[in-house]
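Exercise 7 asks you to align residues with tokens for two separate proteins.
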Amino acid sequence: MADFLLHAPEGANKKKRIVGRGSSSGRGTTAGKGNKGQQSRSGGKTYVGFEGGQMPLYRRIAHRGFSNALFKKEVYCVNVRDLESKFNDGETVDKTSLLAKGLLKSATAEIKVLADGDLTKKLNVVVDKVSASAKAKIEKAGGTVTVKNTEKTEEKK
């Protein structure tokens, strides 16, 4: 019947180490903390980033100024050559069709069409931005270009 009892494997449960209880305990006198020094004292700890009295790194490096990274706009660039290879004649090129064809990774980013490559197909292009030469290539192939109104606030005097 003793075979059916559950028990922890050998060595799984260790006896708690009791320190500082006299020299005969084997962990008396310095209680495993070595001799003297900051680490042997009670409360002898330092803060995170302490470098032994040297000026810490977080105080040596300047943390000032302004970062525009929070206000950065993501703009994905799509070349005319990509439109030529992925789209058929007469199709509409917009955010949803670009996502469906795998040319766009994010639905929130702005799209700009650039003029690298040639275009022979007639396409309806509805994007946020387009370069002048890309617009000329699309219109030369018989397509149309519509630029969405991006929100720009103009100050009134």
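Second protein for Exercise 7:
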Amino acid sequence: MALIALLPGDGIGPEVVAEARRVLDALALDLTFEEAPVGGAAYLVAGNPLPSATLALAKRADAILFGAVGDPQFEALERRLRPEAAILGLRRELGLFANLRPATLTPGLEDASPLKPEIARTLDLLIVRELTGDVYFGEKGRRTGLGGVREGWDSMRYDEVEVERIARVGFETARRRKNKLCSVDKANVLETSQLWRDVVNEVSGDYDDVELTHMYVDNAAMQLVHNPGQFDVIVTGNLFGDILSDQASACAGSIGMLPSASLSSWRSNLGLYEPIHGSAPDIAGQGIANPCGTILSAAMMLDHSLDLGEAARRIEAAVATAIVGGARTADIGGTLSTGAMGDAILAAL
């Protein structure tokens, strides 16, 4: 029996995680669930966005299903106590260094994409984002500069071991798809990116069967809306991956549709699975959030961490069938509630 840690978090997190749990229960798999607070919800009960008990559960679990963290009421706290510190802490403590973010247009959602339908239909890519380095984890601070002017500074850094590790995930992922890998950087102006490009080129020698290309991040952002069909697998750093994956989700029709997997070096099969959207506090509690990204994250969890690929395909097919049948929440042009969308997917399942 596999143990799943449920970390619903803040905002719409509990609502969408509940729908994913319903789908997993309907499959009657050999799973057991334990829930723990995280983010702002955890700060309210424990004074810490990542309590020791929550971290201990995450380390014991076979996989983690995560909702979202973040709430404006905590913005005045020092950074280490804000809800977002929880997900950064989980990434650091569990070695969650590789984030897989697929972006595919679900048939029937062409009108929800800002792209022309004929362009939107070509969207079928996967972004491999490095998660534990870059500017998010570099040294940072505030200081007073010349003339008493306030400055904020953040250090962007990678070492060659970190780049090689994520590059190999990119190449291995490309081998399971179409053998095409695009490495995105900003090597024309950033020394960090030049090291990135050098190491990716070195690693490519072990993957002669994978076609490697390089692209600057500003061009990649343009190409995602101009010709997304040219991409299969993109590998990139933490900052660029954060931005590009959100852009790709908009091309797919809604940020509420897309799942993600964060894979660990701490234990090979351990992963944290979450929708790529945030906590959306403006709609929390209204029952209108799209649960598809979380439900599809549960499918990725079954596939990557639990070796239950057949069950994962059933979930993916059920979501697609529900969408084609007209089931839609407000973000993709419909009127269904969160629960009603879950009902439609369960009916398709």
